[in-house]
Amino acid sequence: MQQKRPLEIDPRILAEAAEWFALFRSGRVQANETAQWQAWLAAHPDHQTAWSRVEFHIERFKALPPKAALAALTAPDLQRRRAIKHLVLLGGVGLASWQFSRAGYWQAWTADYHVAQGQIQTITLADGSTVAMDSGSALNVAFGADLRRLQLVSGEIYIETAKDNAGWQRPFVVDTQDGRVRALGTRFSVSQQADRSEVTVFADSVEIQPIHPNSPKQQLHAGQNTRFAADRIEPIQPNKLDKPAWTQGVIVADDIPLSEFLLQLNRYRQGYITCAPEIADMRIIGSFPLKDTDKILASLATNLPVKLTNPLPLWVKVLPR
């Protein structure tokens, strides 16, 4: 039996966090509900962790206040950008969590490369290396005389490194908010999550160095995966994939809770999906093509004892049938 990873969250708590998030985003929250949310958030440390997890998975407009966020999702692109800029210049988004995440949103928006919600993009770097960027990802590139450096601002990237074509062997590194991943001639992926970073190696190896100066380095080899924070590296886990599933246009559920699956699926569509807490820990197994997320939701309703409802536009809620 595979060891449970540290910092995993009860699926029912994830479902509760997603429900709160969707309520705030709907623009129909009442004053007493704000107080109830704050009490829920303070009731247990896992509630704050779950809230951060939901914010990471849900699309990139999490920095906006609720009513503006819903409007921005349906506005034309130019109008959306102007509205967001105006709101941030005014300042004050109401809830502390949105205010806290605002700086991270603008880092993503102004990055060298950023991928829209539901899109996947592949870029070729100056040295011939390729980087596939997952939905909602943002990346800065800085190639200098001594270093080939990527800064992952948000989301997930999959990298196939090339030999340095500049005539000397400059190290190839990916920096996250938690530390540095150095490629040792390899294929690997890196994701920036709300409270940590994750690395998976598909060929050769990488070296992980958390940002805290007293944290030891750790090598990760092909077929291995781990997550790390600024001051620690978590236990190594096995990985059986040849490359991330999203680079092949699918989302893979390997016996994961329904709440976690829906959070992942939400990254590839506009709006938000939630589920009732009583079905949050229902296990999901399978491979689902990402080109039609409505079809994925319909297949859940066909094959599981669940039904789909639409409390508001852009909000799909999964309930027990």
TrEMBL record:
Top-rank taxon: Bacteria
Domain FecR protein, first and last residues per copy: 112-207
Domain FecR N-terminal: residue ranges: 16-55
Stored InterPro entries: FecR (IPR006860), FecR_N (IPR032623), Ferrdict_sens_TM (IPR012373)
Name of the protein in question: FecR domain-containing protein
Species of the source: Methylomonas defluvii
